[in-house]
Amino acid sequence: MSIRVLFLGEIVGRAGIKTVKDALRPLRQEREIDLVIANGEGATSGFGLGRAHSMQLLKLGIDVITGGEKMYYKLDMVEFITKNPSILRPANYPQQNPGRGVRYLTVKDQKVCVINILGNADFPRTHLSNAFSLAQILVDKAKEDQAISLVQFHASPTAEKLSMGFMLDGKASAVIGTHTKVLSADAAILKGGTAYISDNGRCGSQLSVGGFDSKVEIEKYITQIPTRSQECWDDLALVGVLVDIADDGKATAIETIRIPVEGKEE
């Protein structure tokens, strides 16, 4: 039995949460979506994910929340992540770190393994095991467990994401890039049957700098003073990709989505 998976782009601040609140449930019903995976590490003011926001997002219809280098920015998440298997830190953090990077679940009688990996480039504050070596191990383990693999790769360089996609082509059902928060134009089914995109965008303001007020971001570049970013509410949309996966674990379709949401600052 085939399944349909929605990978939502990074949820940025209250504006991003509003897009999920207003658009996700109708979209799930209309498109008959079986599983929703979302990057939530920017849900709390754009920097990290707090306990309350994580619970809200799960109640709004997200099944698995992933995060990257900002996973531990909110102190209450450091403790809470150990209690909730639906919130995934990067699997290649040190194994003694709070939380987990892999989630097994059953979707329409299909065993699914969601794997969250953080890239090794451009994250100087993290000390990670090799993303590529671990990804191969985890995908192979999922196959032994008779589960299809869905890999969320939170990385910066497009070349690193593409390399991961081609390495796992024919092994993982999907390799979905996150982090840059800009929907890329390279969604494709690779030769081996793996759905791939370099970045699945962001949920929140689209006329903004990564979901933040452009005036503040410009001023930071001019003055080099680390002023706190401010959430932006212009042109709200729920953004991500839909992936159809057949019984044999091969992806049969990948489609980018952008659902406009009306709203102003709450």
UniProtKB/TrEMBL annotation:
This is Metallophosphoesterase. Transmembrane segments: none annotated. One of its GO terms (molecular function) is 2',3'-cyclic-nucleotide 3'-phosphodiesterase activity. InterPro entries: Metallo-depent_PP-like, YmdB-like. It comes from the Bacteria. It holds the Pfam family YmdB.
